[in-house]
Structures are given as structure tokens and as C-alpha cells.
Amino acid sequence: MNSKASNQIKLKLSSVNIKGKISFNRSLKKFTWLRVGGDAEIFFQPDCIQDLVHLIENIPTETNIFPIGVCSNLLVRDGGIPGVTIRLGRGFSQMQYENGLICVGAGALDSKVADFAAESGIDLSFLKTIPGTIGGAVKMNAGCYGHSMADIIKDATVLSRCGKLRNMSRKDLGLGYRRSKLPDDWIVVAVRLNGQKLSTDEIQKKMQLNQRKRSESQPVGEKTGGSTFKNPYDTSYDVTDIKVKKELRAWELISESNLRGVKLGGASVSQLHANFLINDGTATADDFEQLGSFIQRKVYEQKGVKLEWEIKRVGIKKKMLNKGTK
């Protein structure tokens, strides 16, 4: 967005009665789990759905809108995000049990939803170890331990770019492996979830087991994001002369390519889990992006497999010097 257009939007918003908090040139670094990234040109934290709709109605349709959650699986580039970045607040974190369904606001943390559902005797235990919000989980069809959001979603309330609220079924959302068909500028505001009925004790035991697995296999104490690359498929796998898809593990491909511990600038490949990248405290977003590209190239050269980013990269790149890997 050019400075003239930006100033016009800022002037217009300053005269609109919006209850939520609006700030300008807000640093996003502290919001992202990777602890990198530039500024949000306009940063909006709405109080409620009406507040959110009101804002969208008062900005030009060509203005970029990008919703974020807790940024656990997001790489914000060093040049920041132009337009309006929206972060849902406490007004979007309500949770209630209704007619066998867990009804939650999109700003609710996945782990909190798992806890609430357990108290209601509904097994959403896999959510306990997913570090994000329900809205983000819907957008990317997040999952782990053999389960994903597609298994538990009844429907979702979504705000389109033109400011219209829509109820979308699981089929409407078009959920696939770590993806949905929702455009980037559509905002999930509420979700209804269903799951298997179990006793609270049984569900809590499952959550404790998953948490133990995660702490043993992932660098949870580091400045890191979620899985960097999606698990790919090998279509050359034959069973009785019929080609089928065989799922490959991204971390195994990276490890077998001797890339554990590889470092670029302040970013490195985790020694514990090769599909996680770590910030030593000095990394830039460009360090992570260049390291990711290096991993993709090396895995393709050595294993013949093209890795696809799972971490979502957004914003504007800054021109950086190539620091090299070691």
C-alpha cells in the first residue's frame, strides 16, 4: 500500500466509531513464535463480530486484509504486512457446550478448547498439543497424531472480504491436507465441533500422553514454529503393479539428507526434530526463508522429493545479504 492510500485509510478510521484497538506500524515480531518479522501497517484488535464487520465496511475493497492468531505457524517477512492485520481478541474466545457440540470463538486457543471439551466428555484431545487458535486450525486444517480438524468440524461462521457472515459446512470449507479453500482475507469467527464421547479421565490421559510425546520429540523450549514442511507423497510406490500414494515423512527426508543442525544466520535446523527450524535469538525472517529454500534444494537433489512449505510465509521481503550456510 502506498503512503498516500495508507494515510487516507488512517484518517478515515480515526473518524469511525470502532470499539476495538487500532494501532499503526505495529511490530509483529513479539507475536510470532519464530520471533521474527516486520511491522503491520495497520493493526486491528476487534472487540466483537459487529466491530469487525464495521471496520471491513469502512476500508477500500482493494486494501489487503490478513487475519492472524498466535502466529505459531506463520513466518512474517522482515518488510512487514501491508494493509490491515487483524488479530481476534478475548471477545472471540468464548466456549460453550450445546446439544452435544463444542461451540467456540475462533480466537480460542486449541489447547483450551481441548480442556473445555474434556470437561464436557467430548474427546478433542489431539488439539491439546497444537499451538494455535481454532480459527487458524480451520484455515490450515491443522492436525497431529492421526487426527485433523476435518474430523471434528460441524460447521464454521466465516466473514468474507465484503463483510458478509456465512455459515460454512465441513464440505463447504474444502478441507484437505493442511489446507482449506478459504481465501487468505476471509476470517473464521466461530466454529462448532463434535467428537467422540468419553469420560473426562480417559480424555485427560490421552492428552497427557500426547503432551509427553510432544515434549520428547519436538524442541518445545526453543524459539520455533510448527512443522516447516508438509509430509509429501511418493507416487512411485507399487503394490501388485498398481501405483499408489505412500506418505513420506518430511523430517526423515531432511534428516537423511544430513541437514540436522545446518545453520544460516541465526536460523538452524533442530537437532531433535529435523522438520523444525530454530531461532538462536539473532535470526531474521529472511534467514528462515533462505534456510528453508536450501533444505528444499538439498532434499530434492538427494531424495528426489519436492518439499512444500507448511509454515505460511506472508508480507514483504527486505533485500538481505546471503549469509551462507554452515
Summarize the structure.
This protein is α+β, with helices and mostly antiparallel strands and 326 residues long. It has helices at 3-14, 49-57, 110-119, 134-140, 170-173, 200-217, 250-256, 285-303; strands at residues 21-27, 39-45, 65-68, 74-76, 81-87, 95-98, 101-105, 122-123, 143-144, 147-148, 153-159, 165-169, 187-193, 196-197, 223-224, 233-239, 242-247, 263-264, 267-269, 277-279, 312-314.
Would you kindly provide a written description of the structure presented here, covering whatever features stand out?
42% of the residues are buried. The chain has helices at residues 3-14, 49-57, 110-119, 134-140, 170-173, 200-217, 250-256, 285-303, and strands at residues 21-27, 39-45, 65-68, 74-76, 81-87, 95-98, 101-105, 122-123, 143-144, 147-148, 153-159, 165-169, 187-193, 196-197, 223-224, 233-239, 242-247, 263-264, 267-269, 277-279, 312-314. It is α+β, with helices and mostly antiparallel strands and 326 residues long. The chain has a five-stranded antiparallel β-sheet.
